[in-house]
Every structure is written in structure tokens, then in C-alpha cells.
Amino acid sequence: MASSRKVIELFYDVVSPYSWLGFEVMCRYRNVWNIDLKLRPAFLGGIMQGSGNKPPGLVPNKFLYMTTDLHRLAQYFQVPISPPADPFEAMFEKGSLSAMRFVVAVQEREVGGDKQVEQVSRELWMRIWSQDKDITQPASLSEAAMKAGLSASEVEELLKLSTSKEIKDKLKRSTQEALDHRAFGFPLAVCHVNGKAEVFFGSDRFELIAHYIGEKWMGPQPAAAKL
Ligand SMILES: N[C@@H](CCC(=O)N[C@@H](CS)C(=O)NCC(=O)O)C(=O)O
């Protein structure tokens, strides 16, 4: 029998603070809405290149606006975003390629769910977008994964796997899939309803997503709203 649950794929990259907001909201709603949430770690740098877009932070006024916007959103969404001291270095010089390959490796090895992918992604966001810490070095990835509950031997294996061709290709494929959905930025939610994929960009489209999938939007903290 076909499931009545709607599938939502969430494409994200931990370099993107707006993805963090979208990610936390979707994780909060995954047990509230009748949905199957599929986490889709991908590479925002590849999306920018493949779509011919430019990061919005490169336009000075947008950068200033986003700094204020993220401060307000952090409080509204209750996600501890605090921009790194040098966002340009963190986002554009250091970037997230090794981190996203690592997340894909975690996903490749995880069986029976995506708790580890969820927790490792969150720990990486905590590092770059809350604690102003590195996410490019093996030691940084290792620290994030251990905080997420993985063992030292698991982390060692995942670090090795994350530099393999298999994982590099998998990240490329996921990024290409997002581009095939006409992505130009993240977060990107692809909602599959009645055999059709509807695409939503941004962490500010949840009301519309709820309407589209026939669920109720109760704000960014559904657990608190239900009390
Ligand atoms: N309005 C969206 C903005 C999301 C956003 O700016 N995402 C960045 C990455 S952090 C991006 O990919 N932007 C591409 C663009 O704005 O063209 C939201 O509130 O979530």
C-alpha cells in the first residue's frame, strides 16, 4: 500500500546559516507533520557555480542586512547563530568542501536512520556559525563527530572514507540533483506530493510548504506551540 506520508528532501550545506535555520525547523517538524524527511547534504559552492549565482554576502549592503537579519532570526528560531569574526574567511576562503564530504561519509555508513547525519551536521554548524571554530581540518571534523556521539574508531574510518572517490562523487551527485531542481542557493526543500516535486528556497517558506503539503504551520517551535 502506498504511504500517505509526503517526502520532503532538504538540501543543505553547513556553510550556510540560513540552511541551519531550515534544518532545525524541519527536524522539529519531522515528527509533527506526516512527512518523511530526507536529509540531503550537498555543496553550496557547486550550486553557486552550477547556477551562475553569487553568494549574497558579497554585496556589501546585503551582507550588512544579513548580519542583522541572522541576529533577529537566531532569537526567533531559537538557534544559537553567532557569526564568525571573519565570515569571508570562514565562508569563502576556508569553505565547507571537506566538511560536506565528511557528512556524506557519515550518511553512507549510517544504517537504520539519519540520527548521526543530523547530529554531526548540527555540531558542524555549531562550530562555524556559533563558536567561530574551524570545520576544514580532520581534527575539527573528528571533534564534531565525537561530540555527536561517534567513537574514535568510527571517526577514523569516516575521515578516510570522506576523501574517497566514492564519497566525492556522491556529494557531486547530490549537488547536481539540487541543480536539476533548479537550485541557486540553500536551503532547498523539495516536497514530493502526488508524484510532483515542488521546490522551495529559503528558511522563510515554511508557511507555504505547510499549505502545499496540507499540514499546519505552528511557528518555528512546534513543541512549544502545542503546549
Ligand atoms: N530568504 C532566505 C535567504 C536564504 C539565503 O540567503 N541563503 C544563502 C545561503 S546562506 C543562499 O544560498 N543565497 C542565494 C541567493 O540568495 O541567491 C531565507 O530566509 O532563508
From TrEMBL:
GO MF annotation: an example: glutathione transferase activity
Keyword Transferase: yes
Pfam families in UniProt: DSBA
DSBA-like thioredoxin domain boundaries: 7-213
Alphabetized InterPro entries for the sequence: DSBA-like_thioredoxin_dom, GST_Kappa/NadH, GSTK, HCCAis_GSTk, Thioredoxin-like_sf
GO (cellular component) term, any one: mitochondrion
Top-level enzyme category: transferase
EC number from the UniProt entry: 2.5.1.18
Catalytic machinery residues: 16 (nucleophile)
Catalytic activity of the protein: RX + glutathione = an S-substituted glutathione + a halide anion + H(+)
GO process annotations (BP): glutathione metabolic process
Keywords annotated in UniProt: Transferase
Family note: Belongs to the GST superfamily. Kappa family.
Protein name, UniProt field: Glutathione S-transferase kappa
The organism of origin for this protein: Salvelinus namaycush
